[in-house]
Input
Amino acid sequence: MSVTTLVARVTHSPEETVRLGREIASHLQPPCLALLEGDLGAGKTTLVKGIVAGLGVASEDEVTSPSFTLVHEYGTNVFHADLYRIEGARDLSTLGLEDLTREPSTLLVEWGEKLGHDAPRPCLRISIEHCGGDERKIVVEKVTANSSE
Ligand code: ADP
Ligand code: MG
Output
């Protein structure tokens, strides 16, 4: 498995994070699993607003946190899940999300770090760090299989 950093940037407002999400959308070729990591209030949902808008399947205002409903679908094949309220280590199959990684779909998962080690390999790992005030450090890594695997 090799990991390449695609984006490492500090944003200074929610609007800037949404704009960065739009840029990140161009790196998401379905089927794709993107895991978003970062504390509560880091900006994961804000970034997803930009990603979903950038994919052209919904406007940023239509994207809200799926923390109660677990998963939202935008357009036909873009799914946005939030594992915040899920206790303990789970995998996508216990959540009923497993099939979504087989379809030509895009699955964006907040609190992606809660998935166990059996989780399918993500295409993208996105970490967001609160740096104080409105500053957020956002790092996007592309994860690819080695040809020998
Ligand atoms: P999470 O989904 O990680 O819990 P949200 O995206 O729901 O986080 O919330 C992020 C909060 O931080 C929002 O209230 C947003 O307005 C605020 N915020 C301030 N600065 C930024 C920034 N640079 N990027 C993203 N959100 C920011
Ligand atoms: Mg959120």
In short: The chain has one domain: 30-137. The mean pLDDT is 89.
